[in-house]
């Protein structure tokens, strides 16, 4: 991502404010440059131009945070309160990590071990980015991070996992288990999913051809928001989801092949959005555009597809494989959402079959 223009604007504002600190880009990360006192243990005795690692990504969000850090550094210098320990350097008396450097090193370790960018951003960086970049990683700081989230929530579980992994990486003794709570996906209230009639009516409210095509793909194939943008339709009406998605490559058949045909889904009409971004951000764009037009969230189209396959009598293994998750996840997530009315419909369908077993 090219942020050179925004970087010049940030440094322009810092210069105009006479902060005395410059934000620099080093590869995919951001750092600060300023005239600073000698580091602890250094041989030099006079202040010099030095750099401070922030561990922030070189993107617009990272720039916003880097500008705040630059102003903080400038204020500390002006007040003669600058301390290298606050910015990642302490006297060499033992293995000590500061948050910015620790997160940066942990990311490199995670990716080298085969991790994916989306999982890193969603499960680790998202909670860890709340840590102050220049603060020393301690058990107390990690506990504070975890307790800043809502108890018994998914965000609390995610913070515990990320904090525990970072603690293990840097050698800090911290056990997040006591703070995890009792959150479980099975305790989430069932969704009030749209009926198939409501889905058809909602599609008619989407006027933009590109977004209407996205809506149709999600409704017909049960795709995740971002997966619509990673499809191969060369075997239409079957679609292939490419390996760039969360769960790897897979094939999906339409539940209601009539929708695939009537809605002309074989003719790809992508909306005009930036695709050179993470899957998470692409998914957010889908939600941001479609949600105001609907009485439900776009992701409910995927859940409705899953329930529909159960009502159609598809084997659970088949539905789970096409959705890109395990049979266990599929069963725990969707079978508990089937309403009494839906069960009655399936019952009437099955007992009404002419080839069903008859009593003696």
TrEMBL record:
Keywords: DNA recombination. One of its GO terms (biological process) is DNA integration. One of its GO terms (molecular function) is DNA binding. InterPro entries: DNA_brk_join_enz, Integrase-like_cat_sf, Integrase_catalytic. It comes from the Bacteria. This is Integrase. Residues 183-348 form the Tyr recombinase domain. Gene3D superfamilies: Intergrase catalytic core. Residues 35-60 are annotated as: Disordered.
């Amino acid at each position: 991502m090219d942020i050179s223009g925004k970087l010049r604007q940030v440094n322009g504002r810092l210069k105009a404010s006479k902060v005395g600190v410059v934000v620099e880009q080093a590869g995919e990360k951001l750092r600060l440059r300023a005239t600073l006192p000698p580091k602890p243990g250094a041989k030099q005795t006079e202040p010099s131009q030095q750099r401070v690692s922030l561990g922030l990504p070189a993107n617009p969000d990272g720039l916003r945070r880097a500008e705040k850090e630059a102003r903080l550094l400038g204020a500390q210098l002006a007040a003669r309160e600058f301390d290298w320990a606050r910015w990642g350097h302490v006297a060499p008396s033992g293995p000590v990590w500061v948050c910015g450097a620790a997160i940066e090193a942990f990311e490199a370790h995670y990716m080298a071990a085969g991790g994916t960018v989306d999982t890193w951003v969603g499960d680790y960086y998202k909670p860890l980015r709340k840590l102050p970049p220049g603060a020393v990683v301690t058990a107390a700081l990690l506990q504070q991070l975890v307790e800043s989230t809502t108890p018994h929530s998914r965000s609390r579980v995610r913070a515990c996992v990320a904090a525990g992994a970072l603690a293990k990486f840097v050698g800090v003794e911290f056990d997040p288990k006591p703070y995890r709570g009792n959150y479980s996906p099975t305790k989430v209230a069932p969704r009030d999913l749209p009926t198939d009639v409501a889905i058809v009516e909602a599609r008619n409210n989407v006027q933009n051809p590109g977004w209407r095509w996205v809506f149709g793909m999600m409704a017909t194939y049960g795709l995740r928001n971002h997966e619509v943008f990673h499809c191969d339709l060369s075997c239409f009406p079957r679609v292939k989801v490419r390996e760039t998605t969360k769960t790897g490559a897979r094939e999906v058949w339409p539940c209601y092949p009539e929708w695939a045909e009537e809605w002309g889904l074989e003719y790809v009409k992508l909306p005009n959005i930036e695709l050179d971004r993470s899957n998470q951000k692409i998914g957010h764009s889908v939600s941001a555009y479609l949600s105001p037009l609907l009485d439900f969230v776009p992701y409910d189209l995927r859940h409705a597809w899953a329930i529909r396959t159960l009502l159609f009598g598809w084997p659970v293994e088949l539905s789970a494989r096409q959705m890109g998750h395990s049979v266990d996840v599929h069963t725990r997530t969707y079978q508990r959402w089937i309403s009494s009315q839906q069960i009655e419909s399936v019952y009437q369908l099955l007992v009404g079959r002419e080839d069903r077993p008859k009593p003696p």
